[in-house]
User: Fold this.
Amino acid sequence: LQDGHQFHPPEAGGIWGEVFHLLYRLQLRNRKRKRRLTALIKRFQEATAAMPDATVILDVNGTIEWFNDAAQPLLGLQAGRDVGQRIVNLVRHPEFSGFLARENPPEPLRMSAPHDDSLALSIRVVPYGKEQRLLIARDISQQLRLEQMRRDFVANVSHELRTPLTVVSGF
Assistant:
């Protein structure tokens, strides 16, 4: 039992035979449970690695417990170095620190990426597990560019229609 190796119970009669048999069943059940949990963790890690959004698990103090691969380019986190660090020490924006200090922020925070000002991020924090929080950062740069293009288009069309209408109404 101390080595953790699988063993078949020795042949014994009476109460010791029953004890050995129950220990053997307990060992088999624990091995099965461990395989299920390992498979579940692997599926969770594969699912979050496939997400385009940065996902970071924080403890109650804002210390990084885990993050997916998308957090590296979006938030500038590094896998070996940043687990166990406080996220406010790594993502240095005053709005970000204030945002994380709030218990349950109602609206997502919009800010530029810490290491790339050309990227705009939408950051949301939700309660997760026991005294943990899940930080999700999404790249909204393309969405903001499309909104700006739409505003420019509407302004140009409005101007182009107003000019001929002014001339026609003058006549």
Residues 83 and 161 are 57 Å apart (CA to CA). The radius of gyration is 28 Å. The chain has a mean pLDDT of 87.
